[in-house]
Amino acid sequence: METFSIHFIISEYAKELFACLQAKGKNSFDCGMERLADAANEVYHLLSFVLEKDKVFLLSHKEYELTASERETFLTCFERRKNGEPLAYIVGRKEFYGYDFLVDNSTLIPRPDTEILVDEAIKFYYFQKDNENTSEKTCAISNFQIVDLGTGTGCILLSVLKECGNACGVGIDINPKAVELARKNAENLGLQEKCAFFTADFTDTNFSEKLELEILHTAKIDCLTSNPPYIPDYEYEILDKGVKGYEPKTALVSGNSLAGIQGLYHAEKILALGEKILRKGGLILLEHGYDQGRALRELCSSYAFFEIKTLYDFGNNARALYAIKS
To answer: Where does the secretion signal sit in this chain (predicted)?
Structure first.
């Protein structure tokens, strides 16, 4: 009889997980996988979580047999994953931009495609730093400030702050649990002195005044980032179970903008806010759906922005709006 060793688990349970999640179907928000190696990697993550050991230990101790308690915990986690629950929620962590973030079901799980917002914010920061002595720069680089709306885990803001030494920032989220989680991530990354997080609904009528007066103290900011809700109601109904069944609907679904464009209600609120709080020459970076690029560029053109363009993700899908405050 085969022992319940690390080698056995990786070999047999990866096959079972791969077959199960492949059978569930896929879409752009799918929590499944394309290769058996992806399934094996997830099983390694589950074992690392259960045994509190890194992958190096697992690879060098393949004959280690799990205790009865460890086996029970692993099988519980494995069943949750087989049923479609995202791995990140099971282990409570997700890597983003090379950093480790705590996650729970109060927030969206950070996704690699969102990293393009971080890339662009970092490029903008260093461009400003290189040109800080020119007449075009209107605020000191030592006070380069970012506001991140719908911050969730804080992954966008905190990744930028880790890469940009003289930047500071503010994260806003409607969910107080998400705000608390973002604060914990800031502490874990040693960034608690460079940022602050607040609970607020940025679509509220009085939000812009409160942000300007109580949080920013009338100062204009350099960069506004957001991965807001942007899925239309009708698309939510066909999302993968791993998303619809576990990730918060309020962080996914958005209504129609005033222009009648489906899924861009939150985006329009952000554009209006960016018009008020960004300095002249400041940058707005706004994630959107793969088919919303043209509509959002057109919407953005009715506000005080120029150099409006669409950024593309790793799969070459339209993924984010880039625009400069005029």
So the answer is: none
